[in-house]
Amino acid sequence: MTYDLWYWDGIPGRGEFVRLALEAGGIPYRERARDPGADEGTLIEDMRSARKHPPFAPPYLVAGKMTLGQTANILLFLGEKHGLAPESLEGRLWVNQLQLTIADMVAEAHDTHHPISASDYYEDQKEEAARRARVFREERIPKFLGYFERLLDGTDAWLAGGGKWTYVDLSLYHLVDGLLYAFPKRMATVAADYPNVFALHERVTALPELQAYFASGRRLPFGEGIFRRYRELDAA
């Protein structure tokens, strides 16, 4: 089966967590918002079309007659269906729990530049963003990365244990990658405190399964979306 992935074109965003799993798993899919002639309205029209289980927002995956929304939910499905998660129920739920924890940090990273309203410009909430970003840098980055550091048993470990990556390792990679883009000064300062996390980031960067994707135009650069670089929000 070839899946249809729907997400806003032009930004990695939350859709990138799903793309990484599809690409690393060698799973056929179509990025429907990048179809010839497609635009933002195409995605909105499809999202609002009649479905038994309509999505609230992108990303969502169309798998035959099923429509799956929410990043963690999509990855839970792909993990079981395509061997990107442990075989046991306990293992699959553990990986899903970690994915939901990553989703919590992703939301907090987004709110550093839109702490009041996602519909207002950053320039309209800069004072509040500066306060939110300071707390995120000083308290929340260490709390989240410290948690994942404790889970990784050495610099050659994967989050679910065993000798193979799961989709949550790919997601932690993308989270760290986004933080390195948005908060380069802070991440350079704390890198030595989390050697296991940064080692995992390097190993996912080098995964043979992802090299073709990384070298292709399908992978979008950071800019708009969740992870944004505002120099005034970053500090060592």
Automatic annotation (TrEMBL):
Domain annotation GST C-terminal: ranges: 88-222
Top-level taxon: Bacteria
Domain called GST N-terminal: residue spans: 1-86
This protein's name: Glutathione S-transferase
Organism (species): Achromobacter mucicolens
Pfam families: GST_C_3
Alphabetical list of InterPro entries matching this protein: Glutathione-S-Trfase_C-like, Glutathione-S-Trfase_C_sf, Glutathione_S-Trfase_N, GST_C, GST_superfamily, Thioredoxin-like_sf
Gene3D superfamilies: 1.20.1050.10, Glutaredoxin
Xref: CDD domains: GST_C_Sigma_like, GST_N_Sigma_like
